[in-house]
Write a structure and sequence with these properties.
Chain A: Keywords: ATP-binding, Nucleotide-binding, Transport. The structure holds two protein chains of two kinds. Helices cover 30% and strands 22% of the residues of chain A. Chain A has helices at residues 56-63, 87-93, 103-106, 113-123, 129-142, 159-171, 189-206, 217-223, 241-246, 251-258, 297-301; strands spanning 6-20, 27-41, 45-49, 71-76, 79-80, 96-99, 177-181, 209-214, 226-231, 234-239, 307-308, 314-315. An eight-stranded mixed β-sheet of chain A has the order 6-7-8-3-9-10-12-11, with helices on both faces. In chain A, strands 2-1-4-5 form a four-stranded antiparallel β-sheet. In chain A, helix 4 crosses helix 5 (129-142), helix 4 (113-123) runs parallel beside helix 6 (159-171) and helix 5 crosses helix 6 (159-171). The relative contact order of chain A is 0.13. Chain B has two domains: 6-218, P-loop containing nucleotide triphosphate hydrolases (Rossmann fold), CATH 3.40.50; 225-324, no CATH class. In chain B, helix 4 packs across helix 5 (121-134) and helix 4 (105-117) runs parallel beside helix 7 (153-166). By secondary structure, chain B is of the alpha/beta class. In chain B, 35% of the residues lie in helices and 22% in strands. The chains are: A alpha/beta, B alpha/beta. Chains A and B meet through helix 7, helix 8, helix 9 and helix 10 of A and helix 8, helix 9, helix 10 and helix 11 of B.
């Protein structure tokens, strides 16, 4: 049975890394991703937001099979993802592509743009020489570059043009899924807008589903149909972007939304105490409780499950679900 | 405006004959918070690096930067050393690379105290502890003995701010101080800068690519494009009635946080390269209102109302209008 419209489904993904403390220290397990489940429909965009170290990029790599999960499963197009490195996985990779933050780092500076855009077609053996050249021209036009710019080298293009070139290459095999990891954060504001418009246009034109990984809630709202907020390896809230931005249910989402700088706001900003916790030193219970302004005793003991509220919004918070009365935060444990 | 603390006039900078700054006029009053906004390469950082004599020797600098009657452009090193850190302090985007990784935090703060206030020994250490406390570092006494890598990015930026405060500056120039930080930490640092201004009465120049950040922390903003200030206005006015098409473009490029989702009004094209600067208005090639006159010469900044200037030929008729109808 192929579920209607679902392209990508991840169930309970876990990714652990061994991290050594100090030069001679013992290795400790760091759970970068700690039980993430998500589903993405064809032609839609899921935004994944959170701060550095929350596991959003790792999640992106896990769903593409660029890393093997230590737990959980990914299915693509109704079938389980083949093991990374196998020929079945390589064939499937033509249908899933990745776009990174730094376009200059993602491009080979010794090759002209057109040679890099044609590469996926060569690798996956799509078309013959003449049809590939025509396809490259079409792709460059689709991302707003002129075909003659295909002869340029990466350093001869601006940052925005390079990101367009990266997108052209990612789209070469006509993928069903694009994982975009902070695709605009290295770009200037006016160029960010160009690339966001382009992503929306390309999705309309090619029906590509996108996983849009970003720390920028504004950008996520602009391009996404759904948004998932991550904190320390887990999704803490998921819903429609407008709903989450207007009425965030999780205290962490509330702080993120209130941290969006915008003019004319009367100082009701929630300034969180402390730094994002170290994944190697995960707090007990709800990972957010040491910074949470409404944490209660239960929050330090028991991790809340991600489950739907009456209106369908998924939230992982004891207080939001009424399992605990809002407290006033817990006394901070000073780091040693 | 009261007597300015710092007055920059006609400041120009070129690197190897290619212009980076093409005539900056900007005054900062005592205690005022001014934002400088623009995209990478527009000259917002170079303005203050030039003012403080921090550019490499190959930079050609012209114009004037006056602080209390003293011109800093071409001033001898002894003068600049007293101003840097003493009257004007500067912090940068990446605190980790501004701090010395092999020295303890305390030593780096006391070094600044010795330099600017001649403090040594126990007195310097006590003052360093007070400064770390003031910038919101918990358990300041113990943190004096840690190394930068033991602190988070946000805490390192707080240490940088403490070092900047060590010389009791009259002006703090913060160059993208929150860009490398997470959103919730950015909120903390902006809050800290605000409270420090209230406590110490120092002026703040906040350099940022993010109009939203500047809007929260500043009273006035200067928008820069290709080495010039194209618009200058009080924050609220800029958001309500931006006069320069570039400012309007920047505002339109910002995704809204509520209301219907619309296509972003992206500014087409890119910033001109310094060696291919258009003859007239540098923004003309990207401007939706470009006319022949735009290419004739660089438009002067004209005052629309008190405190609101824009360098656009289309902004001029509004000036005439404002003059005919006194407020």
């Amino acid at each position: 049975m192929r579920p209607g419209g679902v392209l990508l489904e991840a169930e309970g993904l876990v990714r652990r890394y061994g991290m050594r403390r100090g030069v001679f220290g013992r290795t400790v397990d760091v759970r970068a991703v700690d039980g993430v489940s998500l589903r993405l429909e064809r032609g839609r965009t899921l935004g994944l937001v959170g701060e550095s170290g929350c596991g959003k990029s790792t999640t992106g790599r896990l769903v593409l099979g660029m890393e093997t999960p230590d737990g959980g499963s990914v299915s693509f197009d109704g079938r389980p993802m083949p093991s990374p490195g196998t020929s079945a996985w390589r064939v499937l990779r033509a249908r899933m592509q990745m776009v990174f933050q730094d376009p200059l780092g993602a491009l080979d500076r010794r090759l002209p743009i057109a040679a890099q855009v044609v590469e996926p077609l060569d690798i996956h053996g799509i078309g013959d020489r003449a049809s590939r050249a025509a396809r490259v021209e079409d792709l460059l036009r689709a991302v707003g570059l002129r075909p003659d710019q295909g002869a340029r080298y990466p350093h001869e293009l601006s940052g925005g043009q390079r990101q367009r070139a990266v997108l052209a290459r990612a789209l070469a095999t006509d993928p069903a899924l694009l994982v975009c990891d902070e695709p605009i954060s290295a770009l200037d504001v006016s160029i960010q807008a160009q690339v966001m418009n382009l992503l929306v246009d390309l999705q309309e034109q090619f029906g590509t589903a996108m996983l849009f990984v970003s720390h920028d809630l504004r950008a996520v709202r602009q391009v996404s149909h759904r948004v998932a907020v991550m904190y320390l390896g887990r999704i803490v809230e998921e819903g429609e972007p407008d709903g989450v931005l207007r009425d965030p249910a999780h205290p962490y989402s509330r702080a993120l939304v209130s941290a969006i700088p915008h003019p004319g706001r009367g100082g009701q900003r929630i300034v969180l105490q402390g730094d994002p916790p170290n994944p190697a030193d995960r707090p007990t219970g709800c990972a957010f409780h040491p910074r949470c302004p409404v944490a209660t005793g239960l929050c330090a003991q028991e991790a809340p499950a991600l489950k739907p509220r009456a209106d369908g919004r998924l939230v992982a918070c004891h207080v939001a679900h009424g399992e605990a009365v809002a407290g006033t935060g817990l006394p901070r444990r000073e780091a040693a | 405006m009261s007597t300015p603390l710092v007055e920059i006039s006609g400041l120009t900078v070129s690197f190897d004959g290619q212009p980076a700054l093409r005539g900056i006029d900007l005054a900062v009053a005592p205690g005022e918070a001014v934002g400088m906004v623009g995209e990478s390469g527009c000259g917002k950082s170079v303005t203050w690096l030039a003012a403080l004599g921090l550019l490499p020797a190959r930079a050609r600098i012209g114009g004037r930067v006056a602080i209390g009657g003293q011109d800093l452009v071409g001033a001898p090193a002894s003068v600049l050393e007293r101003v840097r850190g003493g009257r004007i302090a500067m912090i940068f985007q990446d605190p980790a690379s501004s701090l010395n990784p092999v020295h303890r935090i305390g030593r780096q703060v006391t070094e600044a105290l010795a330099l600017h206030r001649g403090m040594t020994g126990a007195a310097a250490r006590a003052e360093a502890r007070r400064l770390l406390d003031q910038v919101g570092i918990p358990d300041a006494a113990r943190r004096l003995d840690v190394y930068p890598h033991e602190l988070s990015g946000g805490q390192n930026q707080r240490v940088m701010i403490a070092i900047a405060l060590a010389g009791q500056p009259e002006l703090l120039v913060a160059d993208e101080p929150t860009t490398a930080l997470d959103v919730t930490i950015q909120a903390q640092i902006l809050e800290l800068l605000q409270s420090l201004r209230r406590e110490t009465g120092m002026a703040l120049v906040l350099i940022s690519h993010d109009l939203g950040v500047v809007a929260e922390a500043c009273e006035r903003v200067a928008v820069m494009y290709a080495g010039r200030i194209v618009e200058e206005a009080p924050i609220a006015r800029l958001f309500d009635t931006a006069a320069h098409p570039y400012t309007q473009g920047l505002l339109g490029a910002l995704p809204p946080i509520d209301g219907p989702r619309r296509r972003l009004a992206a500014i087409p094209g890119g910033v001109p390269e310094p060696w291919a600067m258009p003859p007239g208005c540098a923004f003309a090639p990207r401007c939706p209102h470009r006319a022949a006159a735009c290419d004739a010469r660089i438009p002067d900044a004209s005052a629309l109302v008190e405190g609101h200037r824009a360098a656009c030929i289309r902004a001029a008729p509004a000036t005439a209008l404002a003059e005919r109808m006194p407020a």
